[in-house]
């Protein structure tokens, strides 16, 4: 997925968002049991990365040429 993001492949943006969302869900689940501050920091970092991926995805989609009919 990282290589896809670096190359601007459209399929990699939703795949990366889904993977990070799964990590965040698991981190919140683990936080409920461990109450680790490290998990909170990692979850916040993952959320920031998700926002950046979402923003870049919108930019990449806006720069793609429209398909001709």
How would you characterize the overall build of this protein?
The protein is mostly helical and 69 residues long. It has one domain. The protein is built from 3 helices and no strands. The chain has helices spanning 2-7, 12-34, 37-63. It is elongated.
Quick rundown:
By secondary structure, the protein is mostly helical. The chain has 3 helices and no strands. Helices cover 81% and strands 0% of the residues.
Count of spatially separate domains: 1
Could you tell me the number of beta strands?
0
Helix content: over 70%
First-to-last CA distance: 31 Å
Structural class: mainly alpha
- Distinct helical segment count: 3
Q: What is the string of SSEs from the N terminus onward? A: HHH
The percent range for strand residues is under 5%
Biggest sheet, in brief?
none
